[in-house]
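Example (one chain per record):
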Amino acid sequence: MGCASSIHISDRVVYHSGKESEDSHSPQQTNTTQHQGNPTTLTEVQFGPMKLFKDPLQVLLVFAKEDSQSNGFCWACEKAGFRFSLARTVESARECFVEKQHDLVIIDHRQTRHLDAEALCRAIRSVISSENTVIVAVVKRPDREEASVMPLINAGFNRRYVENANMMACYNELLQLEHGEVRAQFKLRAGNALFTALEQSQEAIEITSEDQVIQYVNPAYESIMGYQQGELIGKEIIEVPKSEKNKPDLLETINSCIRKGKVRKKTVHSTLQNVSDKIRHYVSINRPLNDNNKSEKPSERVQAESQTDIQSSKHKDRRKGSLDVRSTTSRGSDGSSQRRHSSMARIHSMTIEAPITKVINIINAAQESSPMPVAEALDRVLEILRTTELYSPQLGTKDEDPHTNDLVGGLMTDGLRRLSGNEYIFSTKQPHHIPSHLTTPLSLNDIPPRIAQTMENEDSWDFDIFNLEAATMKRPLTYLGLKIFSRFGVCEFLNCPEATLRSWLQVIEANYHSTNSYHNSSHAADVLHATAYFLCKERVKQSLDPIDEVAALIAATVHDVDHPGRTNSFLCNAGSELAILYNDTAVLESHHAALAFQITTRDDKCNIFKNIERNEYRTLRQAIIDMVLATEMTKHFEHVNKFVNSINKPLAALEENGGNNDEESVKSVLTSPENRILVKRMLIKCADISNPCRPQELCIEWAGRISEEYFAQTDEEKRQGLPVVMPVFDRNTCSIPKSQISFIDYFITDMFDAWDAFADLPNLMQHLDNNFKYWKGLDERKLHSLRPPPE
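Predicted structure:
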């Protein structure tokens, strides 16, 4: 008994075909990872009126050591014709799951010394696609009193299996799982398609409980009501917010539109009942009436039954023409239709002064005289305008490149799920003061010749920051800061002595972590250099005032101070003190800005703001904070899209039209307060992630450093049992060329196209093109490293 004699175990994962041997009950080895089950037909599954077809079950078995229990499940999978994989370690199991997306995972929980089953379960649950995966823990047979299953449930397990190596017991367990939990999860997954249809429907749909508590509304319903889902879900219909400001003339306008038939709604109400005739849900659908169906009754009520009752109700009286009394007289009856129209009026009257409301009113007026296709398109416009993120695209998750997915998940979200018992302690120490060996005052004229020579071409884009890093013994920020701040007259603007500026630069640099491979003072110096370079471009100089330039240089200097070398997502998942302090929102960026001002203002010796007027200080402080917060990647597309739509497009239109007032119009676009803010945000964003636009050798070095920092984070996430935010950044499997290609494609290209159109940066775009081709070439050769192997 057992499959030990015929299984070939690799170091990581064993794949099986699921084809049962004629001579043995042991699973057979396959030579590739493309393992298939028996060539059986697809299983037909009925889900309400939907007919689904399910592939053979995919099973992941995770057993650290081979024994009779693992052999029993191997044999059971073979007999059932299920495709399955066998993993020995937590890492290989997670990698296998990410690749294969199994329906069922069975994890050995008997020997925690060899395999941390609960940590593995949490790691699998951190993968978004695991939502509908059934995970089973194989536990020891209890010697004494039965233990609680709550720790397993909290870890993410669906159920447990008390060890029983009997092959038929394993086989029966798999069959029960397939026809029970796994099939139920398969139906739930199919339910996502229904929700997608509801979300895209132009008919307003509302689902309530039997007590008229709102359980679901779709975007079209939000558009009609003027409220967001969060304001409606969980409330009784009669609790929907009211206002005393309804105006009779506005209501009359709406009613006149209804009488004309232009926005007339057909309301269909359904009740979902069970066998005992108890109403479980009400479904309300508001449907626009066109010319072809105006003759229909404005409101009709239909009786709907759940799928489980269809067979039993075939011989029942269908009650044609009758109405459900409870539905008609309840809180969701015809009165709710009137409330919908009045609530629209309330929304308009409540926010009549808001600019967005004026826009919506103009569109509503245009709809009255528009043909149906145009009116429907304007409905979609209104739906978009009522969202909160007008400039941020909706990010796909499932079918995109995994490198892009991980970059988006790791850089543009604030964590996945909070795990108890894994708190990450960070920033409990006090900020660094200036080390004693750095306190010797320096003058710009006293800089050592070797360092001065290294900085001779600091105004060139091709300036080599790594030469300066080596010459200054990893203290490039102080020296480069002295030169750049002197070139821009920062001390004169701030009315502060050069000694104060020197002290400030030294203490800021001391609070960067030299142990970070990427987010250290060399990165800050690199961003400062790029910022200074951009500030010298003609268009930028036309747009910004001296106070903006000073704010930009200071923001670049402090933008990553005290960075721990971990992403926001990591800190949120780990429950760090900073994540708690800043409510999981822009955690690091908020910390950088706050700490920079704490360091600066606590000691007069380095307080560069000491001698400026209060109002000027407030303006400067606001600009610095805004620019540091702009480096957070969650609002990346919002900042870029606002810049393009508010600045680039108007400037392009002016250039096309020409005219006598062209120069004055360009100036008004460039110097408006709102647009100056957008320029400063775009400037520091481009400076912060300009590595792909640097000369090739510099680009390669930066790519290696950021990859190493992400590798270190992945290592720590695995050690602590935290969700791995960027699984592709595993030092054993990562393709650095692929990660760079994804980063350039997703974040860099569009942003620098827009910045180049504004600031005219042909040399940067040429470097970007060369670097992209370099990474593409390595990827086409299937290389994972920074450089090709020596010839």
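Caption: The chain is about 50% helix and 10% strand.
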